[in-house]
Amino acid sequence: MIIKTSGLKAWMVILGILFLIMLFLIFLFKLLVYLLPLIIIIILISYLFRILNKLKKGKQKDFIDVRFKVKK
User: Is 35 helix (H, G, I), strand (E, B) or coil?
Assistant: First the structure.
């Protein structure tokens, strides 16, 4: 259902809704500006720990070391 209205009251409601949407978007982008460096730091730290974990493991051996039990 589409309601067609014309008049000062309708324009005030529309402008009020647009103002609220703009305030929400401004708040969202300001929050994003504060959270973006934190997210980047977390990603870099996780990448650093991944690299350190690979360095700790060292090179993998090319052979398999398995002890066999021989039954007599």
Answer: helix
3-state class of 45 per DSSP?
helix
The boundaries of the domain holding residue 42 are 29-57
In the DSSP assignment, the letter for residue 59 is: P
How do residues 49-67 score in pLDDT, each as one tens digit?
988 887 777 666 666 666 6
What pTM value is reported for the model?
0.47
Considering its fold, how many domains does the chain have in total? Answer: 1
Listed in sequence order, the DSSP H helices in 1-72 are 8-57
First CA to last CA distance, the chain: 89
Q: Is residue 38 part of a domain?
A: yes
d(CA 44, CA 38): 10
